[in-house]
Amino acid sequence: MKDRAFEGNDLGVITPRTFCHESAFLLRSGANLPGFELVYETYGKLNSQHSNAVLICHALSGHHHAAGFHSKDDDKPGWWNNCIGPGKAIDTTRFFVVTLNNLGGCHGSTGPCSARPEGMGNWGPDFPTVTVEDWVRSQALLADHLGIRQFAAVIGGSLGGMQAMQWSIDFPERVCAAIMIASAAKLTAQNIAFNEIARHAITSDPHFAAGRYRATGENPDVGLALARMIGHVTYLSASGMGQRFGRQLKSGDLALGQDVEFQVQSYLRYQGQTFSRQFDANTYILMTRALDLFDPAAAYGDDLVEALSGAKAKFLVISFSSDWRFSTERSGEIVHALIRAKKNVVSSVIESEHGHDSFLLPLPRYLAVLGTYLRQLYETLDEHAP
Amino acid sequence: MKDRAFEGNDLGVITPRTFCHESAFLLRSGANLPGFELVYETYGKLNSQHSNAVLICHALSGHHHAAGFHSKDDDKPGWWNNCIGPGKAIDTTRFFVVTLNNLGGCHGSTGPCSARPEGMGNWGPDFPTVTVEDWVRSQALLADHLGIRQFAAVIGGSLGGMQAMQWSIDFPERVCAAIMIASAAKLTAQNIAFNEIARHAITSDPHFAAGRYRATGENPDVGLALARMIGHVTYLSASGMGQRFGRQLKSGDLALGQDVEFQVQSYLRYQGQTFSRQFDANTYILMTRALDLFDPAAAYGDDLVEALSGAKAKFLVISFSSDWRFSTERSGEIVHALIRAKKNVVSSVIESEHGHDSFLLPLPRYLAVLGTYLRQLYETLDEHAP
Q1: For residue range B176-224, what is the model confidence (pLDDT) as tens digits?
Q2: Which of A254, A256, A264 sits opposite B189 (nearest CB)?
Q3: How far apart are CA B21 and CA B138, in angstroms?
Q4: Are strands A90-91 and A36-43 parallel, antiparallel or unpaired?
Q5: Do B226 and A201 touch (CB under 8 A)?
Q6: Do residue B177 and residue B319 come from a single domain?
Q7: Pick from A359, A51, A60, A296: nearest CA to A167
Q8: Is residue A71 part of a domain?
Q9: Among residues A258, A288, A318, which one ends one of the domains?
Q10: What is the band of B133 on the pLDDT scale with cuts at 50, 70, 90?
Q11: Same domain, yes or no, for A33 and A151?
């Protein structure tokens, strides 16, 4: 397994597994899924008390492959490999880490790309609306399957942080610590607007074909690339982009009558094209809708304090100074509500120039805060040795 | 003329005129235009000394029709009617106001929609790249035509402010005051990125047809609407959008299995669709390129102080607290360069929740600053009475 020169603190080769839920699953929208599959990975070992499990919830474009490699020849590790592994902030010598591809995803879990139960092609655009609450309930079923009654921690960034919050509300007895990173209690109108433009870019691509593009053999690559370009700019900070690209030219010279292309233009187009080859358009729409709809306070008279009042978890809330898509103010709203609800809450604002993307990056102070919090949490668990 | 109930401080019915420049005009790109036409409007009276002329430079989607009405039945005045008129901040009882549609525009001036000189259809995508410097030189020819040796003020917001700055650099003797509102000495990488995505949305619309959509009878409405939606979100502030739209629903109820639509989604789509019926796609690309390319310091070793050192104008620099597309920091850079270049500069940061759009809105403090500055300027002119 270690023919390839993995780093000493990498997990090596990881094989995804599939959890099949065979009975009906009623979604918040009222639609009834006749069962579903979730692709998941685990890292580390579940201890005998089953007290050291950590759930990682992914964000908009994430999936189950959070750490390690899928083969010896794999040149890219999972999306959060800098954070998860032996000796890392989420330390797999201590914790049993569970990661999954959410319901509605396009990396193996039941979603728009899956075959319809009646055997009439795939779901495509007819896959029902999925909400953060639905995800959390499906994750709880996966936890049951794995014999995990309570997670030591549920951790997520961005949309993943929303799932961590929902876990603390819907399953107060099953979460020891909820860790919300670069997240928010609900989207702002500006955030919804950016999501709407991204969806509009996808649905107005003629190849989208009202979501039935699998039947035509053409993919809405152009719309999906545009959606990603819009997202990508908003995940970076203005100053970070300035430092990285400035006004550097990629090609051209106006004085020679040539078209000028700036570095940042070429970078964005590349990002968009790469993404459109890897992601499903219907899933992108579904995931952004789940983001828009998340609003746990709505069921409590728009009172977030009330919504969180039944939570029994302790909370860690992390945000990043230059994140304008999920700003420190949004995390501050969560922290203030938790304080007013008399919860145990620790919060940290990390100085970073990398905008919303910061939550995916190996920023030393960020990983130190997360690692320290989890190490202290581990000391309080029922049993330490695996 | 006043059958219609115009407001007492409105200009009434205004008739655009056309300036024809009959000889060749060499652009910065090296391309040579065999003459051009500029559509323009004037308000107020040029005094006998020709000292009271004010030039208004428009922004990305603006044009010559800045104030007054085009007919008695016109239900919408010009785009800056709240600022220009008798007794208003730009007071037409004092000043002779000149406004025009820039070269490359789509409201009557020579541009991509115009017929090619060789009589082979219209220019379309072959219209040469136009820069802020080219605009300023073409505006100077219009000034010659109108008998204006020196403008009392050159005024513009956003891209218009860039023209005001370029005037002060290229024609130091011809500008008494340059007024730059919500502008910048150059775009940031983030700004270029948003422009790039907007252009990409247009050019990847199949109806764009490499810019030759006039020949097909189909317009790239979808791409142009997307471009406008992207622009529009960035012209508003997050808090302003929050106050205006919040998370209000336009329609739908998830609990009833319906798709939910937020107010902000419907608003954005309407804005996009309206714009795509009124604006030319090739012009949109041309105008955003001019924005990207503006960088007067580049010719002076990236030293803005050096670039401005030859200016003889006095300067007023206005920015808005919530404008993140052309932030107060960008205006601050201009102000600091002007101070270091020992110029007469007044600057004002206006508190506003309306983002970049603020420069078009009748904000009392903003109009008071502008009006006061211009009133004082008027007192210093050679001759006061028209």
Answers
A1: 999 999 999 999 999 999 999 999 999 999 999 999 999 998 999 999 9
A2: A264
A3: 9
A4: unpaired
A5: yes
A6: yes
A7: A296
A8: yes
A9: A288
A10: very high
A11: yes
- Measured between beta carbons, which residues in chain B are less than 8 angstroms from residue A193? 229, 233, 241, 264-265, 268
B271 part of contact set with chain A, CB < 8 Å: no
Do residues B228 and B346 share a domain? no
Side by side, which strands form the sheet with B17-21? Answer: B17-21, B36-43, B96-100, B53-57, B151-157, B175-181, B314-320, B345-350
- For residue A229, the domain's CATH number is 1.10.1740.110
Model confidence, pTM:
0.94
What's the CATH code of the domain at A321?
3.40.50.1820
How confident is the prediction for chain A on average, in pLDDT?
Answer: 94
Among B316, B28, B308, smallest CA distance to B172 is for B308
Provide the pLDDT for residue A2. Answer: 44
- Which of A245, A254, A255 faces B189 most closely, judged by CB atoms? A245
For residue A67, give the amino acid letter.
Answer: A
Domain boundary among A288, A304, A324: A288
So what's the ipTM on this one? 0.91
Q: Which of A229, A233, A265 sits opposite B190 (nearest CB)?
A: A233
Claim to verify: residue B219 and residue B300 sit in the same structural domain: no
Query: A222, exposed or middle or buried, with CB in 10 Å at 0-12, 13-18, 19+?
Result: buried
Question: Is A58 in the same domain as A142?
Answer: yes
Give the CA-trace dihedral at A358, A327, B360, A242, to 10 degrees.
Answer: -20
Length of chain B measured in residues: 386
The contacts of residue A269 (CB under 8 Å, 6+ apart) are A225, A229, B196, B200
Q: Are residues B318 and B277 in the same domain?
A: no
CB B208 within 8 A of CB B281: yes
**Same domain as B146, residue B84:** yes
Instruction: Round the average pLDDT of chain B to a whole number and report it.
Output: 94
| Pair type for strands B36-43 and B96-100 | antiparallel
Q: Check B197 against A324: CB less than 8 A apart.
A: no
Mutation target vs A (from B190, B243, B324; most A CBs, 10 A cutoff): B190
C-alpha A282/C-alpha B363 separation (Å) is 43
The full length of chain A comes to 386
Å between A52 CA and nearest CA of chain B? 36
Q: Is residue B255 within 8 Å of B198, Cβ to Cβ?
A: no
Whole domain around residue B98: which residue ranges?
17-186+295-379
**Residue A68 CB neighbours (<10 A):** 21
Q: Is residue B5 part of a domain?
A: no
Specify if A128 maps to a domain. Answer: yes
Sign of CA dihedral A237, A239, A241, A243: negative
Where does residue B177 fall: left (phi above 0), alpha (psi -120 to 50 degrees), or beta otherwise?
beta
Better-predicted residue by pLDDT, B7 or A208: A208
Total number of domains in chain B: 2
Residue A11 located in a structural domain: no
The answer to whether residues A27 and A137 belong to one domain is yes
Q: What is the CA B118 to chain-centroid distance, rounded?
A: 30
Residues of chain A contacting residue B190, judged by C-beta atoms under 8 Å apart: 233, 236, 238, 241-242
Which amino acid is it at B100?
L
- Is residue A3 scored above 60 in pLDDT? no
Q: Give pLDDT, residue B253.
A: 83
